[in-house]
Design a protein that fits this description.
41% of the residues lie in helices and 16% in strands. By secondary structure, it is of the alpha/beta class.
Length: 290
């Protein structure tokens, strides 16, 4: 009985899938046959651009899979923008690694929380946002500094996540973060990776935040000598001592396995832009952006 029921359930699933496919096809035919020519062409152009953008992500993944030089960042094939123009379809792919950013899911660690405070100070942003981010992901209901917990969010109709964020877009719900602040922070924050900062791609503001002892001379010497192929070479750079190197060593890396792809595809009068977050083999999340 159980086996028969499973087979029937599987057949029903296939039928539902076929119905969905046929319905989608008939709708497309109806749309194309009943609307004006210009609208039909717009629909066609958007469809081609959309599928081209999705395909471009696969192109980006192929670049990442082929990367095996022992470091990530400037000097890699994927580091430079990837551009294709074929039979009227224009594709642009920009790949950046996520380890050059601060992982907000590490904020429950006091060492990383202090780093976040320094980062927000370097960005000339209110450090209360760092506290609010920590409160959003930590499991307790105790307010950190001038952060926010359940009492604040219940007035807005929801509660803090109280767990690690799975998508950076989630922080749009956090106290003190509006659309403009999010756009700026998205260049400095991530939810992917171990928390170690990639010295080959991190911003000057984040490198300065690694330690109170980091100064502009040390940071500029890292940036000027990228790509850093061996981490131990850092201690010989201007502005560094062995003490400073070993102080930041647990916080840094020169590799990464998480990436952000910004894709633009154009065909005819339509343009589609996608943002995707990936590892070296698969897409972790993606969305169409305006």
């Amino acid at each position: 009985m159980s086996s028969s029921r499973s087979r029937k359930g599987f057949v029903l699933f296939l039928v539902l899938v076929m119905v969905a496919v046929v319905t989608s096809f008939l709708f497309s035919v109806y749309f194309l046959s009943t609307k004006s020519v210009s609208k039909s062409e717009s629909f066609r152009d958007y469809t081609v651009a959309y599928h081209a953008a999705v395909s471009a992500i696969k192109i980006g993944l192929n670049y990442l899979k082929d990367d095996n030089n022992g470091y990530d960042g400037e000097g890699d094939d994927w580091y430079e923008p990837i551009v294709y123009n074929y039979r009227g379809i224009f594709l642009s792919v920009r790949i950046t690694d996520e380890c050059g950013k601060f992982n907000v899911n590490k904020l429950t660690n006091s060492l990383y929380y202090k780093m976040a405070i320094r980062l927000f100070e370097n960005l000339e942003l209110n450090t209360d946002i760092a506290a609010a981010l920590k409160d959003w992901i930590d499991s307790d209901d105790t307010v950190t500094d001038n952060g926010a917990e359940s009492y604040y969010y219940e007035g807005l109709g929801y509660r803090p996540s109280n767990r690690a964020a799975k998508s950076l877009f989630e922080i749009l719900y956090v106290k003190g973060i509006d659309e403009n602040t999010f756009k700026r922070l998205s260049n400095y924050l991530t939810v992917y990776g171990s928390g170690k900062v990639n010295v080959n791609s991190a911003s000057k503001e984040l490198l300065l935040a690694l330690s109170e002892q980091m100064d502009e001379t040390a940071v500029d010497s890292i940036i000027e000598n990228r790509p850093i192929k061996r981490l131990e070479d850092i201690k010989n750079l201007p502005g560094f001592t062995e003490e400073l190197y070993f102080l930041i060593k647990p916080l840094i890396t020169n590799r990464c396995n998480y990436f952000k792809m910004e894709v633009t595809a154009s065909y005819g009068d339509s343009t589609v832009s996608l943002v995707a977050f990936t590892d070296r083999n698969r897409v972790l999340e993606w969305k169409v952006v305006e």
